[in-house]
Write a structure and sequence with these properties.
Shape: globular
Distance between the termini: 72 Å
Structural class: mainly beta
Order of helices and strands: HEEEEEEEEEEEEEEEEEEH
Helix content: 10-25%
Strand content: 35-45%
Radius of gyration: 20 Å
Number of helices: 2
Strand order of the largest sheet: 6-5-10-9-8-7
Largest sheet: 6 strands, mixed
Number of strands: 18
Amino acid sequence: GESKNDNLNSVQNNYEPIRDGLCKDNKGNVYFKALDASNQNKLVDRFIYVVYSNEFGVDGIKEMKDVVDSESFKSMGSYYYQDKNHIYYFHVMSDGGTMSIIDEANHKTFKVFKHSMYGVDSQSAFYRGAKIAGVDISTFEPIIIESEGQKIGWHAKDKNSYYNGYNVMSETEISELKEEIKRLTTKPKLH
């Protein structure tokens, strides 16, 4: 039989873009447009229609049309999105991905750091939508490294620690990171 997901993603639906990946159909359903790369031969549009949250009870899932405010929905960069009620993180996966509410984030004070997967609100720091434990928020910042013309912030620091994603780094890892930064930022000398 046909599952609801197959029916919602069928080619018969006419998806109308709203903004920043959010779409709607003529039945009032709301979707997030992602790319399904699970077939190695071609990318396929995948229209995701559910949002995950720990606050949604046992299943932890609701349809987007019942959660997302499509009037205020917008991209914040680095797969973070917001509307007037929530901060969302889109977890990219080969089959398209999943959209989750960052339950612990304050949507009124949340900001995303450019060139990184880190975001902060007035109380906490987050990496790819997950809260980082024990961060000193007043001194927290990503470490942006430029490599081959790309600026990337996979690491961060505060006055107490260095972080690789949401994990505190060991002294050895910190030394290796500092060497890598030095190597990438040292200009070659002319003879």
